[in-house]
Design goal:
Layout (H helix, E strand, L loop, with lengths): L5 E10 L10 E10 L4 H12 L18 E4 L2 E4 L5 H4 L4 E5 L6 E3 L2 E2 L2 H8 L20 H11 L6 H5 L12 H11 L7 H8 L13 H5 L6 H14 L6 H16 L4 H9 L4 H6 L1 H9 L14 H13 L1
Parallel strand pairs: 1-5
Antiparallel strand pairs: 1-2, 3-4, 3-5, 6-7
Bound molecules: iron/sulfur cluster (2 copies).
The site of one iron/sulfur cluster (SF4) has 15 residues, from helix 5 and helix 6.
């Protein structure tokens, strides 16, 4: 019989009960005897089954297929059935909390309604211009390969939990829904790429992402939501969808570098906000004053780099490509 090592570890769990103490969250420590093959989920189930039957958590397949058990482990979203306990222990301790950016129902169980509402905002079916063929619609393999990763999404919500924009902007569609949007935007069998992108460039869409990479970091299925968002941004720019601050910022950034090789941050702001957008420019005054006082105000005029022509050649090659 295989012998496994046993040890006692401290698992700190964020508890919350809507029926007790005004639903105020608190942290509870459990000293649990675990074995070296335990996942975080194994330890949580042991607590619930042998130590404290009041602990609430959600799980199902225990094989990282169903996406039910996303939680924050030491502050970062993970599928706890896929996370070996030994990999997250620090001084034999670990903290487990419910996913972020979603309301907590009880303890480690979150209400996924905001997640599903955003997933439902993306039309989940192909829209071909012509009638769908009677037989199977076979797309060339090379056109589908890049979609395989995004189709692996198990809708666990880990990316949404740790998205830094969703912490401050409720109407952002978020990484999971945008990855799903890409799945249809980039499908060769769908003929509504322009229509879909026109919706996605609106407020709350692709330009709200700050490229913090959290969604890439925490996704247990390597869906890479941020890269999908960047691909849709590039497609929207190719289609000259230039309205909105996001697109204007990207275009201004490129044109400034192209013309002088130096990023003039003052011009970047003015080009992004619009030279005559007085209201937006007035809103920036406190920032400009603070920067001036701190000696950090970027210069109004900047010089060009030497060998500007070489840079222009790079742009030419890129544009040709
Ligand atoms: S993109 Fe990744 S992290 Fe986000 S819901 Fe899908 S599988 Fe989970
Ligand atoms: S990269 Fe964008 S979508 Fe992903 S977590 Fe950061 S802000 Fe959210």
């Amino acid at each position: 019989m295989v012998q496994t090592a046993k040890e006692i570890v401290q698992i700190t769990i964020r508890r919350q009960d809507p029926e007790v103490d005004n639903n105020k969250p608190y942290y509870q420590d459990y000293n649990v005897e675990v074995e070296d093959w335990f996942t975080v989920l194994d330890a949580l189930i042991k607590i619930r089954e042998q130590m404290d039957g009041t602990l609430s958590l959600r799980c199902a397949c225990r094989a990282s297929i169903c996406g039910s058990c996303a939680m924050r482990v030491n502050g970062q979203a993970k599928l706890v059935c896929k996370t070996k306990l030994t990999s997250v222990l620090k001084d034999n301790k670990v903290t487990v909390e419910p996913v972020g950016n979603m309301p907590v129902i009880t303890d480690l169980t979150a209400d996924f309604k905001p997640f599903w509402d955003k997933m439902h905002a993306v039309d989940p079916y192909l829209k071909p211009e012509e009638e769908a063929p009677e037989a199977e619609y076979i797309a060339p393999n090379e056109d589908m390969v890049h979609l395989v990763g995004v189709m692996n999404c198990i809708m666990c919500g880990a990316c949404v939990s740790d998205c830094t924009v969703l912490e401050v902007k409720d109407n952002f569609l978020g990484p999971a829904a945008l990855a799903k949007a890409y799945r249809f935007v980039a499908d060769p069998r769908d003929d509504t790429e322009t229509e879909r992108l026109e919706n996605l460039v609106e407020d709350g869409g692709i330009w709200d992402c700050t490229r913090c990479m959290q969604c890439v970091e925490v996704c247990p299925k390597d869906v890479d939501p941020m890269d999908r968002i960047m691909a849709m941004r590039a497609n929207s720019l190719k289609k000259k969808m230039n309205k909105g601050y996001g697109a204007r910022h990207a275009n201004a950034f490129t044109s400034l570098i192209k013309s002088s090789g130096i990023l003039n941050e003052t011009l970047l702001i003015l080009k992004t906000k619009g030279f005559f957008n007085i209201i937006e420019l007035i809103k920036l005054l406190p920032l400009a004053i603070a920067a001036q006082l701190a000696g950090k105000r970027p210069p109004f005029l900047s010089h060009s780099i030497k060998n500007k022509d070489k840079l222009k050649n790079i742009f030419k090659k890129l544009e040709k490509k």
